[in-house]
Write a structure and sequence with these properties.
Distance between the termini: 26 Å
Number of domains: 1
Largest sheet: none
Structural class: mainly alpha
Shape: elongated
Oligomer: single chain
């Protein structure tokens, strides 16, 4: 199955949250666990799950340009979530915060998620409603926005 690198999403909010959280962690050191291996034990599987979901989502899109879709994709991970790439990134973000034993990264997660929702997801939904009309409306009724 082919895919386009341009379809690999790297949400700016997640990247900025991770960088800011890492800086805060470095300056204000506030770990989650006394034994850092606990965070690694929980974080690494979440990172792998998030990467797997994101890769599956990108593969399902294939060679179609995601910024100018010609089809509404409703199967594979898109049958579970209307936004599986964002869900994957959020799971990865959580896993990185745990594996890094960083309270700061996790404290920023609600802000990162809110920004992603209001800046990206709602805008994409309006675009898809205009582009695909009733087909997208029916899809919205069948499939949850996130999980």
């Amino acid at each position: 199955m082919k895919w386009k690198w341009a379809n690999v999403p790297i949400p700016a909010q997640h990247v900025v949250g991770l960088i800011l959280g890492a800086i805060l962690q470095y300056v204000l050191k506030h770990g989650l666990f006394a034994a850092p291996w606990i965070g690694v034990a929980f974080g690494i599987p979440l990172i792998l799950i998030g990467v797997g979901l994101s890769v599956w989502s990108v593969l399902k899109v294939g060679e179609m340009e995601i910024m100018r879709p010609t089809d509404l994709i409703t199967s594979g991970p898109y049958s579970l979530s209307r936004n599986p790439m964002y869900v994957g990134w959020t799971i990865m973000y959580l896993g990185i915060g745990l594996a890094a034993n960083s309270a700061w990264i996790l404290v920023l997660l609600p802000l990162v998620a809110a920004l992603t929702h209001f800046v990206d997801v709602l805008k994409e939904e309006r675009f898809l409603e205009k582009e695909f009309g009733d087909e997208y409306a029916q899809y919205k009724e069948r499939v949850r926005r996130y999980l």
